[in-house]
Amino acid sequence: MTSMPDLDSEIHAVAKLVRAASRIAVLTGAGISTESGIPDFRGPQGVWTKNPAAEKLSTLQHYMNDPDVRRRAWQQRLQHEAWEAEPNPGHAALVALERSGKLKALLTQNIDGLHQKAGSNPALVVEIHGTIHEVVCMSCGDRAPMSKALDRVRSGEEDPSCRACNGILKSATISFGQNLVAEDLRRAEQAALDCELMVAIGSSLGVYPIAAVVPLAKQAGAHIVILNGTPTEMDGLADHVLRGKIGEILPRIVAEAEGTVGV
Ligand code: NAD
Asked: Which terminal CB of the chain, N or C, has fewer other CB atoms within 10 Å?
């Protein structure tokens, strides 16, 4: 019977890799924000795990063609956990890692803005699936703060339209059926090619094309570390897989790499 190496020795090994690397890329998914009170989609307590039908609400075609879907989407946005959420020790650990000068890119699937709220340099953050903090017009491309659109919903507009052209407004997130921003994907792929160490944190690594940066980094010669509470689709290609709570494990790795705890 094979068993996973014990967590302490894996943390020690990964801290060593962090210390040795001069170019690190990190990819985060919804799992880094669950400890801030924002549920993930596919984890054990995930929104889609509990209610598979909810996935349909995130599909562009339904959003564009069905006013009822848009009305429901605006109501969900009003209630979104991101407005109240605060960064947790996992986000803070990445800010500490950035201070070492080694973190060259923070690729995130998250739309919640918590990396920037924690103090990560916005220039390093690539929000590959967009942000919920802005709205975009699906006709003219005009962007505006989400808070202003939500004020309109609160004052009675069920499906507020673009002030400039009356087009359909949507959160500036990437829905199913919608292309990624080409420049964001290019930056993510470049980061994968340039890094010596890629750390994937809190993602099931099943959402493409962004998940493909992990094998891309591997092929380019980087070490791969995966930190997630449950198995991911890419555990097999990782040099180290750490299984447990991100808010507990990530600060330990960064502290040990920095030499601020006994090594
Ligand atoms: P996912 O839901 O597919 O996977 C999240 C993973 O994190 C799961 O495997 C789960 O086991 C793990 N996890 C959850 N909490 C954890 C914790 N405290 N410690 C360790 N592991 C934990 O998420 P995904 O792969 O990022 O894909 C979902 C997509 O939906 C994302 O690409 C994103 O665009 C969007 N999304 C964003 C947010 C957000 O912005 N916070 C939240 C939900 C979904």
From this structure: N
